[in-house]
Amino acid sequence: MIKPILHQTHPEIVKRLKRAEGHLRAIIDMIEGQRPCLDIAQQLHAVEKAIGAAKKTLIHDHIDHCLEQSAGPASRRDRSPVEEVKEITKYL
Q1: pTM of the entire structure?
Q2: Which of 13, 36, 79, 91 is in the most buried spot, having the most CB atoms within 10 Å?
Q3: 12 near 22, Cβ under 8 Å?
């Protein structure tokens, strides 16, 4: 069985997700406590952003380490497609 590789960014991603988890629990409490919808929406937006940032970091880390390792070293010009893939991930 192949052991998954712990990338340098994984601990930071875990921290971000745990922080988002805490915020999500707070949002549930806000809803149950009948807090104003604007406050709840702001907190939901913050959680979405945190999860999106974690996802982007994970994807870029995968591109930087896993895909480039399998493709081997490349010149700056040859890296252009890899950089394009990283750039397009912002639309995920």
Answers
A1: 0.71
A2: 13
A3: no
The residue type at 61: D
Domain coordinates of the chain in residue numbers?
10-91
Local confidence pLDDT in tens for the 92 residues of the chain = 556 667 788 999 999 999 999 999 999 999 999 999 999 999 999 999 999 999 989 888 888 777 666 666 667 677 777 778 888 877 77
CA separation for the pair 2, 76 (Å, rounded): 31
Please state the separation of Cα 47 from the chain's center in Å.
Answer: 11
DSSP string, the chain: -PPPP--TTHHHHHHHHHHHHHHHHHHHHHHHTT--HHHHHHHHHHHHHHHHHHHHHHHHHIIIIIIHHHH----TTTTHHHHHHHHHGGG-
